[in-house]
Design a protein that fits this description.
The chain is of the alpha+beta class. It has two domains: about 130 residues, Diaminopimelate Epimerase, Chain A, domain 1; about 120 residues, Roll (Diaminopimelate Epimerase, Chain A, domain 1), CATH 3.10.310.10. The protein is built from four helices and 18 strands. The chain has an 18-stranded mixed β-sheet that branches. The longest helix has 13 residues. The structure holds the ligand N[C@@H](CCC[C@H](N)C(=O)O)C(=O)O.
């Protein structure tokens, strides 16, 4: 079975994007892991599967898999690449698209300057995947790691994030503390771990140790979560420039029950065809 795909990236967070509207695709977690391998496969942080809408009021469904094969609820950089993909492949002529994800509908919009803006929905502060946080008014939660308390803010952008403020993202212990927070027993569904350095009320530097994927060059939902956490902590203005190792995003949030807006690039690197064996690839 041959599968056509595009390799895409948003700020260096990279994706294998598959048209599941015109191709019948069924991939096992094992296969996704193999495809995601940077030496033996195509290599990506996440695989995005574009599928037909299940309802009349939306345009597409969109499924997201980390490169370990696990399916996740949301992906910000992926949402921008998804919008660029359906437009460039002629699957939709609309400038603004309604897309169903595992955790609600989001609305990517193609801008005239090649950027994509996405209404990422309303953040949540006592997400159901983090049962110990019953009080959404509590903005900072202590988290014990090997006897040291880390002051984290928990934000769900559909997927879970634990954000902390650090003095310098370049020297922050991402590789050692990231996995410990990701797999901390207080996060039974695991968590994406954000390290945010406040540069000013309008600008942050951010590194994210992503759940299942490890540190990526940028994380879109991580940027939304960090800005929301910073605004709730009284450290940031409603419009913030987020600088990552892969480039910059603009994140806007008006507070309370308002949706978060994310704006940034979405780039196609190449198109490809992969020849896969086995019936699991042909539905
Ligand atoms: N890179 C993404 C987030 C992908 C999913 C994440 N690793 C999770 O497990 O929730 C983004 O840009 O948001």
């Amino acid at each position: 079975m041959k599968i056509q795909f595009s390799k895409m990236q948003g700020l260096g967070n990279d994706f294998m994007v598959i048209d599941g509207v015109n191709q019948q695709i069924k991939l096992s977690p094992d296969t996704i892991r193999q495809l995601g391998d940077r030496h033996f496969g195509i290599g990506f942080d996440q695989l995005l599967l574009v599928e037909p809408a299940t309802r009349d009021d939306i345009d597409f469904s969109y499924r997201i898999f980390n490169n370990d094969g696990s399916e996740v609820e949301q992906c910000g950089n992926g949402a921008r690449c998804f919008a660029r993909f359906v437009h460039d492949k002629g699957l939709s002529l609309k400038q603004e698209i309604a897309v169903e994800t595992a955790r609600g509908v989001i609305y990517p919009r193609l801008e005239n300057n090649d950027n994509v803006s996405v209404n990422m929905g309303v953040p949540q502060f006592a997400p159901k995947e983090i049962p110990f946080i019953a009080d959404s008014d509590q903005i900072i939660h202590p988290l014990d790691i090997d006897g040291t308390n880390f002051a984290i803010s928990v934000v769900s952008m559909g997927n879970p994030h634990a954000v902390q403020v650090v003095a310098d993202v370049e020297t922050a212990p991402i590789a050692s503390i990231g996995p410990k927070i990701e797999t901390h027993p207080r996060f039974p569904a695991k968590v994406n771990v954000g390290f945010m350095q406040i540069i000013s009320r309008d600008e942050i530097r951010l590194r994210v140790f992503e759940r299942a994927a490890g540190e990526t060059l940028a994380c879109g939902t991580g940027a939304c979560a960090a800005v929301v956490a910073g605004i709730r902590r009284g450290l940031l203005n409603p419009l913030v420039r987020v600088i990552t190792h892969g480039g910059e995003l603009s994140i806007a949030w008006g507070g309370d029950s308002q949706a978060v807006w994310m704006t940034g690039p979405a780039i196609t690197v190449f198109d490809g065809i992969i020849n896969l064996q086995g019936e699991e690839y042909a539905a």
